[in-house]
Amino acid sequence: MQSRQPLLTVQGVTLQYKTPHHLITATYRVSFDVMQGDRFILLGPSGCGKSTLQKAVGGYMTPTEGEMRLKGRKITQPGPDRMMVFQEFDQLLPWKTVKQNVAFALHASKRMSRREAEEKAMEYVSKVGLASFADSHPHMLSGGMKQRVAIARGMAMEPDILLMDEPFAALDALTRRKMQDELLKLWDETKFTVLFVTHSIAEAIKIGNRILLLSPHPGRVKAELNSTTDAQQAIELEQHIHQMLFSHEPEEVEHA
Amino acid sequence: MPEAVARLKDIRRRMDDDRPEIHHDDTEAGELTIIEQRLSGFEILYREAWLRKLVILAVLALIWEIYGRTLNNDLLFPTFSATILAFFTGLMDGTLPAAAWSSGKVLLMGYGLGIVLAATLTALAMASRIGTDFLETMTSMFNPLPAIALLPLALIWFGLGNASLVFVLVHSVTWAIALNTHSGFLGVSRTLKMVGRNYGLRGPAFIMKILIPAAFPSILTGLKIGWAFAWRTLIAAELVFGVSSGSGGLGWFIFENKNMLDIPKVFAGLLTVIIIGLVVENLIFRTIERRTIERWGVQH
């Protein structure tokens, strides 16, 4: 297992951006490797630069230091080999139906002809259980359904890596739990590689197989952990992570 | 699952509570209340907005007719029937359609040029900061200026005729469309823009496939306002200055018939202006709205 080439390497990446009055360092010399088939989690409290880091992997930001390589190629700009799934519900094109939203991604990125794209889109729309809503427009869907379409769109592109930025954060707790289960089921079927950003420790343990723990202001790597599916170990891991994140603060119970 | 365990404990503790849990048996639907019942014919008809409005129109026409007849003075206030008669005579002998067509031609020319100019200005504004400043300054300066106020100047520059009209129309259309399109583009959500770039769309493809459809509600608003400005400006220009005397538009038709004291024809001309306005605003633009932004659920 150790001899495998990493799919994504992030090496000593420092990210900075400017607000009107400040230059802010979001992450400082962050390094990690993502292997093929990983469910790699970026976990940390707000302000640890996890979303910024993912945007940089997406190609929307250029590191001031260090570099990121996907399959050995340096990341310089956004591209369909790294599909993003955002937290916001407005990530679907409102003027296209569910099926068209998925098909458009395939067609616009010049992957395939219109007809092929339609067929493939339908396949993935069914996969996320929305076949009967294929011809609905996004505004007729619930939040959870919209996120499912976004996931279908990301998966249909069969990208090298799927970048998910707190995709379930805006959902209610019940829907979130269901979506987490569904995502794991989809992963069991296709074994895609995903880089998943979250601030929920429980979600990180449930979704991920490897967790990168970041500390805030600026974001630095605190630990890189293996997740577990065993319930007892999960509780211990959750406490362990909790301690690492909040060791400097007085003990408090987290409701994740 | 730690949560599942916690929930089980929760239930057990509740069992000790002195307040009992309550379960309801299913009632047979339809036993107690109306599930679905057809409305009466009158109720169904009364729910149609167009029918209610038609009734209002009919009542107004009736009042008009009665008043016209009691006044019995065609020079001041012709009856409804005389107006309708004049309208159909005008339609039949081709004077009204000809007048409407010559107005329409000028209008489309001005509207088209205005759209092109607005698109250019918006493109410049999107491309550079100085372009944005230019557009904002020009719009804030010219938007409050009624286009018709430029007509005297236009008459000096371009002379009596269509060129002056087109100039004034372009002015009335451009700023409204440019302003709305630009603010529409600025309002496109960051997420959508990121999605578009994620697909690998750049440059013109990005504008055509992401920015324009995303900003379409604002663009359509601009087109509607531009149309309304243009239509009113055109009739006013023709009417007040008789600019289109050479080509003979609708405004000119009204102006001319007033001079000849053929008041039913003046009314018929006004009616034509109203009908064309209604058709464009409520038929053409409404249809576009229904097919696009209403279906997409993005109207404001």
Total of helices of chain A: 7
The average pLDDT score of chain B comes to 85
Order of helices and strands of chain A: EEEHEEEHHHEHEHEEH
The shape of chain B, in one word, is: flat
Report, as a whole number of angstroms, the end-to-end distance of chain A: 33 Å
Strand residue content of chain A: 15-25%
- Biggest interface, residues from each chain: A-B, 28 and 23 residues
What does this structure look like?
The complex is a heterodimer of chains A (256) and B (300). Chain A has 2 domains: 1-81 and 163-250, P-loop containing nucleotide triphosphate hydrolases (Rossmann fold), CATH 3.40.50.300; 89-158, no CATH class. Chain A starts with 7 loop residues before the first strand and ends in a 10-residue tail after the last helix. Chain A is globular and about 55 Å long. In chain A, α2 (98-108) packs parallel to α4, α3 (114-127) crosses α4 and α6 packs across α7. Chain A is an alpha/beta fold. Helices cover 35% and strands 25% of the residues of chain A. A 6-stranded mixed sheet of chain A has the order 6-7-8-3-9-10, with helices on both faces. In chain A, a hairpin with a 4-residue loop joins β1 and β2. Chain B is mostly helical. Helices cover 76% and strands 0% of the residues of chain B. Chain B has 13 helices and no strands. Chain B starts with a helix and ends with a helix. In chain B, 32% of the residues are buried.
